[in-house]
Sequence to fold (343 residues):
Amino acid sequence: MEQPECGWCEDPSSTGRGQCVEGSYRGPMKGPSQTQTTSQDMTLEPGLCPKEKGYEWAFIHCPACQCNGHSSCVNGSVCEQCRNLTTGQHCQTCMPGYHGDPTNGGKCQACKCNGHAGVCQVQTGKCFCTTKGIKGDHCQLCDSENRYLGNPLRGTCYYNLLIDYQFTFSLLQEDDHHYTAINFMATPEQTNKNLDMSINASNNFNLNITWSVGSTAGTVSGEEVPIVSKTNIKEYRDSFSCEKFTFRSNPNITFYVYVSNFSWPIKIQIAFSQHNSIMDLVQFFVTFFSCFLSLLLVAAVVWKIKQTCWASRRRELMRERQQMASRPFASVAVALDIGGGAN
Fold:
């Protein structure tokens, strides 16, 4: 179809396999040299597609059998059963988990994803990694720019969580629909406090938690000790004792959280913390009441001082009144001059 000067010589296998041959509606043609292209110099050459040997020539119309060499044709045009890791109406694509160009007898190869993907891009073989944080055409790298650590060639990748922070992972974009797992790691910062952990998600998921004293995350299988295994849950809380896991004697102790088997889209929240909520509450109330009693004591002292000042002032006023009351009364002599006239 892409080369109008060519026809199609179908081989005798009845699978749709063949080759493009230059020719016309009469049959394949051959010129005197490879550089000769004019139709006047071309001669008919039936031997290039011998019909007596089972070959079929098609020039104007495509042949009925179109199975690309991977299936026999039933009723002349229907592909019976695709073989060689192919699928499709005409066995024209590779099966999931394989890539290549199977048209006209081409081969399909298995996706090379280091165990972190089940499918890849059909034409290029680029893997669709199923674990968040693993990247690369063959799922061979960790996304270290976004805090993912580990080695996917020997294990997996983990998001490195900070203590006393809550992290939210929103896998909502179309590019996230291949993800079915995400892994986390956390290392205690204080050796004398328990490590509290909480996780919740919008969809159900499977949860596995392990711990290890090694510092090489996800590189050596079998170095981790299982702690928790849950299936089909939406939330989980736990506390890891600093005494039971000997934080003080194991400064490199690390906890690994594996979240898997979830469906897209999903939102996940996870947090590790090392503060004791009960003791913090007691400390809050102790501090609150201490401040309250201190303020009450100051108010009482101020009130007492004020009362003392008022009492002193009242006593002084009383003394002044008593002094005024004890003073002697004054007398005034009035002389009246009454005239003794003739009357």
